[in-house]
Specification:
By secondary structure, this protein is mainly alpha-helical. The chain has helices at about 1-15, 25-50, 60-90, 100-125, 125-140, 145-175, 175-180, 185-210, 220-230, 235-260.
């Protein structure tokens, strides 16, 4: 009887592994950092938009808004280049030989990247996107660098682009499934929303020479909507991820059971 109990304890110890496969702290810190930055921009807009942001020819506009634009662009894109370069130069060059547990751990990390990327995308998809239209329906623009544009297009968009391309780089350099081929949903998720920044040029040209009113339903804004919708391809990526994670869980469980029996 005691021998049977000991055997059951060994099986339980094998199945209830204490190995840590996901660390939530980097994700929590990433989300907190993005939230803090978005909150800062909101408070800054509330304090200085109507006070110094109505006339682009004033010295105060140059001090409070153009200076911010000149700082945020190199800082955010510089951070993105650093993150992508780091992920590339520290890439795993033996992906064909990684064990199932390591691969599963990396899938959990990839999901963490998706969480931060999605949260960063909320900056343009919710409050700041709507407030931009409201600003231009209320205040006549005299420059493309309006207080709303400096935040929504030149801060929020580059910010989620940083996490989007970092997510893509992580997947292609750490996970065999994404390194051996191209995931169409993942490419849609990253490149579609990133093209919103390129579409801004067409939008500004249209408002300057074609259509001055800020009407959401006008064809001039359709590009933003369609490119934003490409983010819905994240559901397809998560389906690919979950299917592979399910296979890895089975492989790890089977390996643990075989070790216990042995």
């Amino acid at each position: 009887m005691s021998a049977v109990m000991k055997s059951m304890e060994r099986v339980g110890a094998g199945l209830q592994s204490t190995r840590k496969i996901f660390n939530a702290w980097p994700v929590a810190l990433g989300v907190a950092g993005v939230a803090a930055l978005l909150l800062f921009y909101r408070l800054y807009q509330g304090a200085y938009s109507f006070k110094y942001g109505l006339d682009s020819t004033t010295p105060e506009f140059q001090t409070y808004w153009v200076t911010m634009f000149k700082i945020e662009i190199p800082v955010i894109f510089g951070l993105g280049l650093f993150m992508v370069a780091y992920l590339w130069f520290t890439r795993d060059k033996n992906l064909a030989k990684i064990d199932p547990e390591t691969e599963l751990r990396r899938y959990f990390t990839l999901v963490g990247w998706f969480l931060i990327y999605t949260f960063a995308f909320l900056g343009i998809a919710s409050f700041y996107g709507e407030s931009d239209g409201t600003w231009h329906q209320t205040v006549i623009r005299d420059t493309a660098l309006t207080p709303s544009h400096i935040v929504v297009f030149y801060a929020c968009v580059p910010l989620y682009m940083v996490f989007g391309f970092s997510t893509l780089t992580y997947a292609m350099t750490r996970i065999p499934k994404f390194a051996s081929g191209h995931s169409i949903p993942l490419l849609f998720v990253v490149f579609g929303p990133a093209l919103i920044l390129a579409n801004l040029g067409y939008n500004e040209w249209g408002h300057a020479f074609w259509f001055t009113e800020e009407i959401f339903s006008h064809p001039l804004h359709w590009g933003f909507t369609v490119l934003g919708w490409t983010g819905l391809a994240l559901g397809g990526v998560l389906l690919q991820v979950v299917m592979r994670m399910s296979e890895l869980f089975k492989e790890i469980t089977a390996a643990d059971q075989s070790k216990v029996i042995a």
